[in-house]
Amino acid sequence: MHMYTVLYFGLATAGLHYFALVLAEKYQRWQALRVFAKHHKTKPARRENPWDVLGIYKVVAMARLVIKGTSLDGAIDLFQRLGRTYSSKILTQPVLFTCDPRNMRHVLITAFTDFDSSRGIRDHLFRPITPHGIFALDGNEWKTARRLYRDHFSRTRDIVDLDLQERCFRNLEALIPSDNTPFDLQPLFLRLMLDLTTAFAMGVCVDSLRPDQSVEKKRFVDALIHVKKTMARDGFLGPVHVFLSKKEFHASCSTVQHFVEDIIRQKLAVSRPKDKSDSQEDVATAVESCFLDKLMEGSGDVIELRDGVLTLLIAGIDSVASLLSTATFLLSRHQAAQDKLRASILDKVGYELPSFNDLRGLAYLRYVFNETMRVYPPVPFNARTANQDTYLPVGGGPDGEDSVLVEKGARIVFSSWGSHRDLDNFGRDAHEFIPERWENLQADTLAGFIPFNLGPRACPGQNFALMEASYVVVRLLQTFSRIEKGDDKPWKENLGLNLSNKNGTVIKVVRYPDHSGVVKANGHPVIEKVV
Ligand code: HEM
């Protein structure tokens, strides 16, 4: 036989062999899925645009909504049209969208180990800034990291620093116009949370509310803000983000990392961390004990410690700023709720500085926070990837009551924005801000209310966050006799790492008539000035 004939014959046989192997593998996979589907009695979920087989139209439609600033309302329209659970495709990737509390509880609690939070979803976003941080981890690595947060955040009373809160509040208050002119409180809340969280996380406050902020700290803050903005942008762009320049992003990551590493090295150089605050130049803003000190009890690795600190700077700043900005926006536009909240604060706390127990006992304030996060959740949606073949308990079949097959690698996008505004969960007035509804609801056990998520991966900082925010709102309402809206612009979606209002929190404030830098009102005691 001719040499080429032998070669072609050999190649053709190898090709056929390979083709047969692929076919056999596909058949086996199909069989296994069929058995799995039969066992769990799954039925297909309703499919969005079945003709969009590559999921290109879906990407274009989502991009359009994001640009218009209506993607969250667009998501609700789809849930109303297709049901609380439906399937779709995004650039060939199968995705199940759900706002059904039964499915959300299943993914977050019951079948927690069937789903990954980071792999393929957000690890590529977090890796450049916190490669070893908890947000980039799954499985056993995540479990180990999580233990530390659980230990540190389990006793909120021990970690909330009320003196620090007061110092930072005073700095915020100094920037509020006292002549009743409208101003935007949203960027000030962001700066407040930058100051509180940096002091809490690494023992050094970045002074972003102070006029004498150092150039180095300002550079750090600008870089941190840029990093988070880029992460949020790339998260929404998906695979398209690889085509954009990352030069500034990487430079900002390195500025942020070096700043934190320097602080860690200084701390490590001092044998007893607590003695350090005396020898530091930041005496005015340093705190006694911080999260970094806790981390240093278990590790001396600068990179590991840096990622632990940066995780809090990513998780704990914009989220609480979002809660505070939205709560104040809503209170300034719902005068009756504001009056009721102020009355409850003055009744329980008076004009004294609030103690931890005071803050914990303010029931109506908790209703206001619950209702704020129900209507405008700081994390309005989230995603998981199936790490094995699994299922959702509901969403399949014509009435959506059958279970749904979830193939390994498929993505679940679950929407608190959708479940929090579901009329079946919260009644016909689900879209309105009514704190009183919480008199008869139990936030911890209420299916479908998931501002902090549920289960093993729920926010470890939730109680701490609520205490930080409570302190600020109490002090605001003790200081100002009235907080009014400063414009008529409506709330408008702004999707970053956390949800915020594109139109800001524009308000006007009325101080108590005899206010003089300390809280003071007719017939009420005066708060001691905190230095
Ligand atoms: C109102 C404020 C906050 C909200 C609404 C919020 C919400 C959330 C949510 C929904 C998650 C889960 C993310 C996911 O599973 O994909 C989360 C995780 C996390 N949060 Fe918060 N958070 C807030 C404040 C804070 C604060 C103040 C801290 C710490 C200072 C913090 C630390 C964390 C950490 C470390 C995680 C990762 C947990 C893990 O992956 O196991 N959060 N948060």
UniProtKB/TrEMBL annotation:
One of its GO terms (molecular function) is heme binding. Its cofactor is heme. This is Uncharacterized protein. CDD domains: CYP52 (cd11063). The keyword Iron applies. The lineage of its organism: Eukaryota, Fungi, Dikarya, Ascomycota, Pezizomycotina. Keywords: Heme, Iron, Metal-binding, Monooxygenase, Oxidoreductase. Heme binds at C459.
